[in-house]
Amino acid sequence: MKRTTQNRFKALTSACVMVMMATVAWSQTLTWLGTLGGDWSSAFGVSADGSVVVGRSRNSTGQEIAFRWTALGGMQSLGTFGGDRSGAVSVSANGNIVVGWAYDAQGRWRAFRWENNQMQDLGTLGGNYAQALGISADGSVIVGYAADSQGRWRACRWTNGTVTALFGSDWVYPHSWARDVSDDGSVIVGAEANYDYGYGLFRAFRWRQGSKQSFTSGEAFAVSADGTVAAGRYDDIQRDCYDEYDCYYYIAGEYAFRNTQTMRLGNNSRFGHSAFDVSADGSIVVGTSDGKAFRWTQSGVEDLNVTYANLLTNGSRLISAFAISRNGRYIVGVGYNGATRRDEAFLLDTATCTPHNGDADNNGCIDDADLLAVLFAFGNTGSDLGRVDVNCDQTVDDADLLQVLFNFGSGC
């Protein structure tokens, strides 16, 4: 009688778990985010869980305005400082704080911090212009550039309502800007540029606790959570001379880079290759190459249009990937939406979670270690829980625990 009861309980448990797994398993999706009423939009930032996307869109009158998108609320205009244009560039991990730039009534672009439907002017370094381009995970450090009293762009950071220039500029590279910041705010990447001499050459920099390192020509767009991995655009600088006294420099090619690695899709062009963002651990890079959105991992460079071809209909295509969520699951950018026949912001959910039988530590044996791992994580939620989220529903709960208990001892 006891064995019969156990078998019935086991069968019932098995049926419940299998139904729950079939119901909640993740699926890959591509969401076109629409516009603010106009004919174009592009996404530049995404929250850690993919629930918030920020960017820029044309409205019904043709003005390009910053937006914040959520699955429930759709696309929301963030407005301006009285001018006719604005752009949201980055967002905190929880999606609550948005940064970017907005025009004021005098036609000057100003850096903003948006939270709880309030847009705050972050100030400048004595000049009239500023843009906020990056934000730390918790939103405490904002980076970008601000004009000084001489009109030069200066890479800077805003903390506790105060703006500070990261460093001075030498006469060859009078302008600079910061693009991204590590989680703790100690590492910042960006670029310096010489707009006042020759072609206008760029060099990428990494700033760490007051010390600047210029590490390649081009521009650094992103940095990993710990500051060890930088990604951006590498410029192939060439020198040409009419004679020994008359020489000039020029950009012969542009290539995406991750630290010392360069990457591109195919060999169709020497230009148009940039890496725009990296995952928190630096293992995944996204960007654009030859007009196609790409993703780089240790396995190489892949065209997202090929990898996710089953999600693209009506002649749609992904043009550029501008941001990736911290765990590497969500990618946002701009593509051509064949259904609406316009360039439009997209949210790609790569949904890499795979439901399993309860082997949380993936050692082939479902035992006390797996049970304890699930128990210690019980109640946690999120999209990056790992294998303790046995059924991939983004919550460690009874369903995950039951799966471990039902298969306890298997493979041991």
Overview features:
single chain, about 400 residues, mainly beta, 7-stranded antiparallel sheet, 4-stranded antiparallel sheet, disordered N terminus
The structure class reads mainly beta
As a percent range, the share of helical residues equals 10-25%
Spatial ordering of strands, largest sheet: 14-15-16-17-18-19-20
Query: Roughly what fraction of the amino acids lie in strands?
Result: over 45%
Distance between the termini: 28 Å
Low-confidence stretches: 1-25
Total helical segments: 4
How can the largest sheet be summarized?
7 strands, antiparallel
Number of strands: 27
Principal-axis shape equals: globular
Computed Rg: 24 Å
Mean pLDDT: 86
Task: Report a brief summary of the structure.
The protein is mostly beta strands.
Describe it for me?
With 412 residues, the chain is mainly β. It is 11% helix and 48% strand. It contains 4 helices and 27 strands. It has helices spanning 2-24, 304-307, 368-377, 398-406, and strands at 29-32, 37-46, 52-59, 64-70, 74-79, 82-91, 98-104, 109-115, 118-121, 126-135, 142-148, 153-159, 162-165, 175-181, 187-193, 202-208, 211-223, 230-241, 247-258, 261-263, 273-278, 285-289, 292-297, 300-303, 317-324, 330-337, 342-349. The protein has a 7-stranded antiparallel beta sheet with strand order 14-15-16-17-18-19-20, with no helix packed on it. Strands 1-27-26-25 form a 4-stranded antiparallel beta sheet, with no helix packed on it. Helix 3 runs antiparallel to helix 4. The longest helix is centred in the first third of the chain and has 23 residues, at 2-24. The chain is globular and about 75 Å long. The two termini are 28 Å apart.
